[in-house]
Amino acid sequence: MREASSASAAERWISVRVLPAKEPGARAACLGALFAVGAQGVHEDGPSLVTHFPPGADLEAVHRAVTEADELAVLETSPVPDIDWSEAWKARITSHQLGALTVAPPWLSAELDPQTSIVIEPGMAFGTGEHATTRGVVRLLPRQLSPGAVVADLGAGSAVLSIAAAKLGAGRVYAIELDADAIPDAERNVARNGVSDRVHVFEADAGVLLPLVAPVDLVLANIISSVLIELLPAIAAALRPGGTAILSGILLEERDTMRQVLAAHGWRLLEEDAEDIWWSVSIALA
């Protein structure tokens, strides 16, 4: 592990770059290890995983956790350079054309048609269109959404998927998010996109609230695979006959395992979507 040694570096945040081994499961293990030692977010940069830790973080503990999860992982650390983040971060956010919809931040939305665009202010809540899991759900959504459908969006984050469902014709959408810090962002995004009459944001545990808003025609769930598996019975119970679900947040290397789990729970696959290391799938009860 390469560590910074200058005095000024000690006062800066530290960038940690992890290159997992190529063995199956290594990438997921490294992701879990980074979150376990306090990473608040991890993004993919090609084959590497990149995150940041505050000044004074125990980098040896980070190294130990990652190498225990994947002994062949390569770690590099460096102080984050002094940058005017108030402007620099905007350059990383772009607009995304996803079928009939365009997802964009406010500063790139002036020329977009409000009927076919989703304007998301990047904030604390996950979901700006920058992540492949979000894009996978939006690409699968049109073929599973009937006009006037009732939709439940589990782990709604910024509410981008709820807004997409409303823009594509859903009659009512329940955006369910457990993280209290994400709720204000979600509510602002819903209002900004003019869908407050159809999208209703709830701070709640998805497994608890979903039975209360059932029956629904479509469930959206962009959550890590372990939580998706826990929610499968509740999703099945909440769907109307003929209803479907779209799952995302699943690593491509987990595809075969998830296919087996879904079959064991009585689901059949309708359509798959893959981008980078991520796999999304639409499903229906067999």
Description:
With 286 residues, this protein is of the alpha/beta class. It has helices spanning 26-36, 59-69, 85-88, 132-140, 160-167, 182-192, 206-213, 225-238, 255-264, and strands at 14-19, 43-45, 48-53, 74-79, 96-98, 101-104, 117-119, 150-154, 172-177, 199-203, 216-222, 239-251, 267-275, 278-285. It folds into 2 domains: 8-82, Alpha-Beta Plaits (2-Layer Sandwich); 125-285, Vaccinia Virus protein VP39 (Rossmann fold, 3-Layer(aba) Sandwich). A hairpin with a 2-residue loop joins strand 13 and strand 14 (278-285). Helix 1 packs antiparallel against helix 2 (59-69). The longest helix has 14 residues, at 225-238.
What is the correct CATH architecture of the largest domain?
A: 3-Layer(aba) Sandwich
Number of domains: 2
Counted by DSSP, the helix tally is 9
Q: State the major sheet.
A: 7 strands, mixed
Q: How does the overall form come out from the CA principal axes?
A: globular
First and last CA, distance? 49 Å
Q: What is Rg?
A: 20 Å
Residue windows where pLDDT falls under 50 for at least 5 positions: 1-7
Structural class: alpha/beta
- For the record, the CATH class of the largest domain is Alpha Beta
How is the CATH topology of the largest domain named?
A: Rossmann fold
Q: Mind telling me the CATH superfamily name of the largest domain?
A: Vaccinia Virus protein VP39
Spell out the key features of this protein.
Alpha-Beta Plaits, four-stranded antiparallel beta sheet, alpha/beta, disordered N terminus, 2 domains, about 290 residues, globular, seven-stranded mixed beta sheet, single chain, Rossmann fold, 14 strands, about 30% strand
